[in-house]
Amino acid sequence: MTIRKIKLGPIVLTVLFGALSLFFLLPLAWMMSAAAKTEKEVWTFPIQWIPEDWHFAENFRTVWMGDVSFGLFYMNSIKIALISTLATLIVSAMAGYALSKLEFTGKGLIFSAMMAFMMIPEQATLVPRYIMIKEMGLYDTHAALILMGMFSSYFTFLLRQFMIGVHNDLLEAAELDGAGFFRIFWSVMLPLSRPILATVGIIKFIWTWNDYQGPLIMLNSTNLYTIPLGMQFFKEEFGTTISVMMMASLAAIIPLLVLFLVLQKQVIQGISIGGVKG
Amino acid sequence: MSQHATVQKQLAAREKKTYWTRRRREQLAGWLFIAPEVIGMLVLAVFPLIFSLGLSLTEWNLVGGLSAIKFIGLDNFAELFRDDRFLQALKNNIGFTVGTVPVTMLLGVVFAAIIHKKLYFKNYFKVAFFVPYICSTVAIAAVWSALYHPSKGPLNQLLIQLGASDPPRWLVDTSWSLVAIMVIYIWQLLGYQIIIFMAGMTNIPDELYEAATIDGATGIQQFRRITLPLLGPTTFFLAITSIISSFKVFDMIKFLTNGGPNYSSTVIVYQIYEEGFQHFRMGYASAMSWILFLIIMLVTSLTWITQSRKVHY
């Protein structure tokens, strides 16, 4: 039994990085503090981190209980993010299953084509997709956003990579028991893929929640706005009232912050799989 | 008679059975399972890409309806290279990439190595640096726009206190607007880079470091001789994806500056947005889209070519 020597280096470095990490969190801390202040106090310098004159309730009311409230933007964002996430998971899991475990003509070609499609930047096809959505009569609807958001070769790729690792024995056992391919997919493959489905689902949810460009182009009516567009709306309405803007920013960030802190492992894992295996 | 019918039935049943062999069923299942994704890709990626190439050869103001489409050949592309705003956007995009990608990647790998090897409370650091990446870009942009306020913002107040007599006016200053946005971008993205690099580092076997320690290699030597070379694939992945995403930057620009002041912070995607969705010049915007697409293709293939020579697996 030896007592481990306490090294000075790591302690010093930890303290140093502790300070550095605070610097990264400072803008967010400033936002939270400003959201609870009066407009005048927002700008006092040196920064008054704990408000002297609490204005949280008033700012809250402006953001949440005005004529057009954040509550509405929230419902829109939740609806769109949930439906697109679910739709992406179904479409990508089906494709992932076909690409990993089924043999059919054209599989190799489809897979290579999908890898190539990953390189087409969404921004390069914005104009034609907008025209198509207009022609389909879906402009200014949530359906447009969901449709645009439900196909992802990237997520299909991630799910395929995971599903390749699922043992064939399990699938064959189900087949011997008389299960068809759909049954195998639904009752064997999906339950076994739960970890990757959760990971992909969270990432997709975060991306959709934060998407600004899609709604900006596809939506027009204020009552259909998602949160990022709602932020833009608040900027235009209350552009000079920073405390209100900060309350709105806080509202936009809080759900994801909570989701992230609860599910950090899955989020971080989800972000890193692409980088390591890709 | 009745016996004959039974045999017929059995035969029919067997024929059906032999037709639906396992292989045939698997073929069908394969196609059914892949169909939604393939249709989605064709409708939302392949067709639009071709459509936009077609559009780029036309002059079409959406307001005029379909009958207003006019074929003009390569005129849009010729006009692009005479268009000062587009050239400025192109220049800004390149500057943005050069100014953000090396910085985030360098800081990312160094921070990741230190957090991975040297720090206590590793998990805290992962989370702290990563939080900005999770947050909505628009919300973050709103926060920074206040921090950047030329006269009252905390950043300039601090600079004044530190003795700067004439601090930059950040977002409203033509020579600083793009830099100001780059700072936010780096701040938001660094955590992502750290996470990806750390994921790559956990795949490097510990024995290598143990052997190096026995041989008396210092931490910095180990970083240069073991960590960096073995991170080749990760670095390659990050290089491609970061360059591509730096060419797609839009949210911050739209929310903070609308490309201004005086086009000092405009970028290609912002120009596509302005021409296509504010002026409804669909043909011209499509031509820009294709330039963006070609740039990204070029970057990707160049990185692939250099990668095959430099990356150690």
Automatic annotation (TrEMBL), chain A:
Xref: Pfam families: BPD_transp_1 (PF00528)
Localisation: Cell membrane
Transmembrane listed as a keyword: yes
InterPro entries per UniProt: MetI-like, MetI-like_sf
Alphabetically ordered keywords of this record: Cell membrane, Membrane, Sugar transport, Transmembrane, Transmembrane helix, Transport
Transmembrane region(s): 73-97, 109-131, 143-163, 184-207, 238-263
GO cellular component: plasma membrane
Membrane topology: Multi-pass membrane protein
Domain ABC transmembrane type-1: 74-263
UniProt record, GO biological process: transmembrane transport
UniProt similarity note: Belongs to the binding-protein-dependent transport system permease family.
PANTHER family: ABC TRANSPORTER PERMEASE PROTEIN MG189-RELATED, ABC TRANSPORTER PERMEASE PROTEIN MG189-RELATED-RELATED
Name of this chain's protein: Carbohydrate ABC transporter permease
Organism: Paenibacillus sophorae
TrEMBL record, chain B:
Membrane topology of the entry: Multi-pass membrane protein
Location of the ABC transmembrane type-1 domain: 90-303
Keywords: Cell membrane, Membrane, Sugar transport, Transmembrane, Transmembrane helix, Transport
InterPro entries found in the cross-reference section: ABC_transporter_permease, MetI-like, MetI-like_sf
Signal peptide: none
Gene Ontology CC terms: plasma membrane
Pfam families for this protein: BPD_transp_1
GO biological process, alphabetically ordered: transmembrane transport
Protein's cellular compartments: Cell membrane
Membrane is among the record's keywords: yes
Chain ranges passing through the membrane: 28-51, 94-115, 127-147, 176-199, 230-250, 287-305
PROSITE patterns: ABC_TM1
Domain of life: Bacteria
Keyword Metal-binding annotated: no
PANTHER family with a match to the protein in the record: ABC TRANSPORTER PERMEASE PROTEIN, INNER MEMBRANE ABC TRANSPORTER PERMEASE PROTEIN YCJO
Family the UniProt entry places it in: Belongs to the binding-protein-dependent transport system permease family.
Identification of the protein by name: Multiple sugar transport system permease protein
Organism expressing this protein natively: Paenibacillus sophorae
